[in-house]
């Protein structure tokens, strides 16, 4: 029997052979699979409480662990460690260590909402997954993930650019953050069309949205506020 | 009708409801009860709220008890049936009281409603019940809740509680391969009652399956999570250890999350002990010459078609004597047994079935 991906990282000294004959008896499978002992010595109930008290996470208490969400999840196909069901279970138990171990997967939701539409208990799964991730970020338990960094760059660009998105600025910022590469040659290739189309003007002096001076403080104020359910 | 008389053994929900119905139909009843009070196991253990409606047990039991007390039933308290002799029109039974005094009664039929007893968790030595402080059974907790004395050995309400399901049920090591049917509901109910009293308590239920069947699914199981944040952890605990400061440390596995060994401290542990036939009903079965089925409960003549008739003509069954059951099921069977006994004593109707004579192979593991 193949070893599930979830288990692989916690197994040491793995020997795998498709077929082995011992004393004339044919065996197949995995040998020498020693589990590294990882013992949970206490759960932290405050994790569930805190997540359930946010607007996004309010439906977490409905989940009954059926796995409908995970089995149809878009991201699951790319990342075998990605399991909304499991994230919910660990968050409700307050198994922070296990969630921290999953930090390279947790942020990857593409918000396709398949899970939310199919959940038989009415859990808003996509929102709950984000609320779990937000909880970990807020408490500094996980490193800032590429998704969050990109969101921040995006917002920053919009604010700097007078309420509009500039592909070029965003591209530059993304390159600086290491998400994309941009070489001198790329810049030279881009310059031609930019000059010819006159877009270069927009780049130097961005075309702001109407009344930006009045809208900006409103947006800034809104970004400061933390929403708490009643 | 000329003075037909039925003997009812046991005054739990089943025996009380059978007695009341027979009186309503004008049949005389002789009621024999081992204890000094009416009401059966729910009274004996002082049940707190009843599932599924979460109402006080007295609301359900007291009207039944009053109905019987006021119906002119001849009652033998602190007594058991010691012998039975078949006569042409029924039986002569000898009833023995605590002091050993024996009285004979002539009856036309018998309803055995002597119920169940709780599994004694000391039989699972690895759980430490009776040895390690702060380990209780659901059958102990009912009284602690109803008498408002839910405290640990420190005298304070528990802040971390673990409930382990299926203790003495679904367990070949103690010979009980059946599910006790009520303990999931009782445990879920107790978890909510604990959270109601100690809102900041952490309550975890360790389970293999949750069997809050039928209409109890949302009333108990969903509600306990949504409204009370009772935690459910899948996995059967293998042993308990005594921790520092009278805490109890559990050893288990979180089977929902691969390879997570659990060693978690709690300040109170509750074992969801199951239902067994018990010595009381064994004595009744032996005296009346009733057969037992493969799990050790009393065998009905036909479990599907004739569930309240025993394998002996003239003797009827009601309640948990034939297997784990809720109070409402026991009351319903009390009605059914009363009706069948009425037909029998007034018109001699006794349905036949050869089901009990057939050998049935049940696979044990
Ligand atoms: C912890 C726990 C909590 C529960 N809570 C609920 C609940 O909330 N709701 C619910 O629906 N069900 C509940 N149940 C189930 C409920 O207790 C039973 O369904 C019910 O008690 C069965 O009724 P009975 O009349 O068949 O038997 P019993 O209630 O057991 O009554 C039997 C009577 O017979 C007497 N007797 C026994 N042997 C003899 C003898 N040899 N001679 C004379 N008399 C004898 C006994 O003293 C007793 O009075 C619970 C069970 C457990 C384990
Ligand atoms: S589908 Fe809904 S109930 Fe099922 S595991 Fe996912 S979130 Fe939980
Ligand atoms: S919304 Fe996210 S969690 Fe839900 S199915 Fe899509 S990728 Fe998976
Ligand atoms: S009712 Fe629940 S706790 Fe009781 S034996 Fe069945 S599964 Fe176990």
TrEMBL record, chain A:
<feature type="domain" description="4Fe-4S ferredoxin-type">
    <location>
        <begin position="98"/>
        <end position="129"/>
    </location>
</feature>
<dbReference type="InterPro" id="IPR051460">
    <property type="entry name" value="HdrC_iron-sulfur_subunit"/>
</dbReference>
<dbReference type="InterPro" id="IPR017896">
    <property type="entry name" value="4Fe4S_Fe-S-bd"/>
</dbReference>
<dbReference type="Pfam" id="PF13183">
    <property type="entry name" value="Fer4_8"/>
</dbReference>
<dbReference type="GO" id="GO:0016491">
    <property type="term" value="F:oxidoreductase activity"/>
</dbReference>
<dbReference type="GO" id="GO:0005886">
    <property type="term" value="C:plasma membrane"/>
</dbReference>
<comment type="similarity">
    <text>Belongs to the HdrC family.</text>
</comment>
<protein>
    <submittedName>
        <fullName>Heterodisulfide reductase, subunit C</fullName>
    </submittedName>
</protein>
<dbReference type="InterPro" id="IPR009051">
    <property type="entry name" value="Helical_ferredxn"/>
</dbReference>
<dbReference type="GO" id="GO:0051536">
    <property type="term" value="F:iron-sulfur cluster binding"/>
</dbReference>
<dbReference type="InterPro" id="IPR017900">
    <property type="entry name" value="4Fe4S_Fe_S_CS"/>
</dbReference>
From TrEMBL, chain B:
<dbReference type="InterPro" id="IPR036188">
    <property type="entry name" value="FAD/NAD-bd_sf"/>
</dbReference>
<dbReference type="Pfam" id="PF07992">
    <property type="entry name" value="Pyr_redox_2"/>
</dbReference>
<protein>
    <submittedName>
        <fullName>Pyridine nucleotide-disulfide oxidoreductase</fullName>
    </submittedName>
</protein>
<dbReference type="GO" id="GO:0016491">
    <property type="term" value="F:oxidoreductase activity"/>
</dbReference>
<dbReference type="InterPro" id="IPR023753">
    <property type="entry name" value="FAD/NAD-binding_dom"/>
</dbReference>
<keyword id="KW-0560">Oxidoreductase</keyword>
<dbReference type="InterPro" id="IPR051691">
    <property type="entry name" value="Metab_Enz_Cyan_OpOx_G3PDH"/>
</dbReference>
<feature type="domain" description="FAD/NAD(P)-binding">
    <location>
        <begin position="5"/>
        <end position="120"/>
    </location>
</feature>
